[in-house]
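My main concern about presentation is that the manuscript never shows what a single data entry looks like. In essence, backbone conformation is discretised, so a fold becomes a row of integers matching the chain in length. An entry of this sort, consisting of the sequence and the corresponding backbone structure tokens, reads as follows:
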Amino acid sequence: MARRYRQQVTIRRILELYGDKAAEAARQALRENAENLAQRVKELAPVEKGFYKGRTYKPKHPGRLRDSIHVEEVGKDKVRVVADAADDKGRYFAKIVEYSPRGQPYMKPAYEEKRIEMMNHTKDTIRNAIREVNLKK
């Protein structure tokens, strides 16, 4: 019995076939996904008052980590969600809160929670753009 293989359709192939409209839809979906992810990361980021309760180190500015979370555009097709909070001495502590044994992860749980939703949103956005291109032909 002969096996049938479906041709794997990559995003690059879709963009070659359908052009700029699909590429712009993919970029738009990327930016929207990054904004949604950043919002969820902010919701999960520990506010320092509760996180450091009962510890000797008391930060002067509660919520500094949460307020530092934002989206950066790295290039035309790249964005990243960044937490760049620093303490009073200029030391960045976002990784410490995320990865230390006594820390409280906030980035990875937000990503895991939103991952499927982001993929579906990207597919739907590109699919709608392709439909528009096909309707115009």
